[in-house]
What we know:
Elements: H1 4-16, H2 22-30, H3 32-42, H4 44-49, H5 54-57, E1 62-66, H6 72-79, E2 83-88, H7 91-103, E3 111-114, E4 127-133, H8 141-154, E5 155-166, H9 171-178, H10 191-200, H11 210-220, E6 221-229, H12 243-255, H13 261-267, E7 270-278
Parallel strand pairs: 1-2, 1-4, 2-3, 4-5
Antiparallel strand pairs: 5-7, 6-7
Helix pairs in contact: 2-6
Amino acid sequence: MNSENQQKNKEHYDRLYKTGQVKNILHWINHLDSFLNSATTTETSWFAIYKNNFKDRIPGKKVLEMGCGDCTNAAIMAALGAEVYANDIADSSGRIIEVLNENYKFKYPIKFIPGDFIENDLKGNQFDFVVGKAFLHHLEIPLEEKFLRETARLLKKDGEARFFEPAVNLKFLDELRWHIPVGNRPSKFQKEKYREWKENDPHPERSFSSSHFERVGKKFFKEVEIHPVGTLERFSRLFKWGEKQNKFKRWALRVEQKLPSALNRSFNRSQLIIYRQPHSINN
Ligand SMILES: C[S@@+](CC[C@H](N)C(=O)[O-])C[C@H]1O[C@@H](n2cnc3c(N)ncnc32)[C@H](O)[C@@H]1O
């Protein structure tokens, strides 16, 4: 591991993930259908990653998850019958996977790949899917390129990579967002507090635009598809947490897909990025 940003991510997420979270994950994988019905209709990241029937396409398939985090998605995919390999820079993710494997009879126990994934010794051309949920945007751009190169190397020729990431396609909208305080994030108007918060934030300064993900994807894949998410869903923040908010989210995620693509491409908050047909990469 060689950058300050990677060290910051490791420390931040090692502190965040606790094996105590496994109790919730076990409850969700024991109630798979109700978890997925709710998550994929109300939470943008689940909505996007599971879009177009992903759930039914993975049983028996070999899936690699990059930046698996608290391992909820790795566990859900494994409970659906996929053979899951998972990596995260945080060692605490590996401890969660150990406890999950001890407490649930997955068809294929989840395999954790610890440490710097770029140093992995997995053989190429073996995965049906590579997924990353809110992962790529944590990488500085040169490292992101290495991860995408690895994705192309590891995927089978007819394999598919799916990444859910934030989207910033209109600069002014993004600036506006940083000036509105949310949770523990102060407004950019509060200069000193904002600077302190930014120092501890594990996100590097970099592009999150859809055209960036298209450009970098084209280096390693013949086919790149961007699905904008959140043009209407972003307004769910105006509601208090609860059923009214969820009802709005369900409506917004359904209806916004019918909006003109130019509108979605400008006002979306997030995006599903799909890469297919990897260029051949030698080790
Ligand atoms: C926002 S979290 C998302 C976690 C999870 N995928 C989810 O949807 O909840 C980003 C994750 O990327 C991981 N990460 C950041 N840099 C990494 C790197 N260089 N290699 C592997 N994982 C990394 C972090 O440790 C963190 O778990």
